Every structure is written in structure tokens, then in C-alpha cells.
Amino acid sequence: MIDAMQFPQRIHDVAQRDPQRRLFGCQLHKYESCRCLAESEVVALESTYGIEVPSEYRVFLTRVGNGGAGPGNGLVALKGPVAPKQSSNRKMGATVRHEVGRVIRKAHYEDVGVNYDAWCHW
């Protein structure tokens, strides 16, 4: 197991060996970690979602970073709770047809807003 506090040095070493930034995923994370979370932010996240963050991960989040550089495209940052996006009240639908064109089933849905926060922001 890797000590979390060795992680920044290991990322730095890989970045030094890849000055042209050619390794897969580094264009996204740029060998940088997202900012660390304050202990109060971790507590708020646990309270909001009714979870307990494991102690090793808590150390990583509060001392190393909340996502960023890591394997592949990097580590995805935890996001704080966000208010649901307003629905457009638009009706959407799907129609399933038999191979000869006869309608088998129709379904209608309300458009639901989706929140997407950019990489590393919380």
C-alpha cells in the first residue's frame, strides 16, 4: 500500500519523466492535484450523504488533494451537494415500433435537469 503522503512526490516524478505531456490522461489533470478539502467540508459531505469517509481517504482528501492527478484521466474530485437544476417542463417521449412499423409502446417523460460541475471545483 502506498502512503498517501508519498503520492505528491510520485506524481511529481512522473511529470518530470513526461515533459512533453504525452502520457494518457495528463492533458486533463496536468499532473496537478485539486485543492485539499478542509475537515469541515469532509464532515459536511458525510452529514449530507449519511456516510463516513474512511480514515485513509480522509487523510488523502485533507492533506493530498480532492482529486486531480492519478491513474488514467486522473482522480475525480468529490463534489459538494448542489441544488437540482430547474426542469424545462418539456415533454419527451420514446416510441417502440414493431418491425412492420406498428407502434408497440409509447412512453412520455418530463425533461429532468442535470447538474454537471467542471473538473476539480468544490
Question: Strand share of the residues?
Answer: 5-15%
Which range best describes the helical content: under 10%, 10-25%, 25-40%, 40-55%, 55-70% or over 70%? 25-40%
Unreliable segments of 5+ consecutive residues: 115-122
State the strand order across the main sheet. 1-2
The sequence of SSEs as H and E is: HHHHEE
Structural class: alpha+beta
Q: Can you count the beta strands?
A: 2
Number of helices: 4
What would you report as the Rg, rounded to the nearest angstrom? 21 Å
Query: What is the first-to-last residue Cα distance?
Result: 28 Å
The major β-sheet equals: 2 strands, antiparallel
Shape type: flat
Mean pLDDT: 78
What does this structure look like?
- The chain has 122 residues and is an alpha+beta fold.
- It is 30% helix and 12% strand.
- The protein has a two-stranded antiparallel ribbon.
- Strand 1 and strand 2 form a beta hairpin.
Short description:
30% of the residues lie in helices and 12% in strands.
Task: For the structure shown, list the relevant keywords.
122 residues, alpha+beta, two-stranded antiparallel ribbon, 30% helix
Secondary structure blueprint with pairings:
Blueprint: H1 7-17, H2 26-29, H3 39-49, H4 55-64, E1 91-97, E2 103-110
Antiparallel strand pairs: 1-2
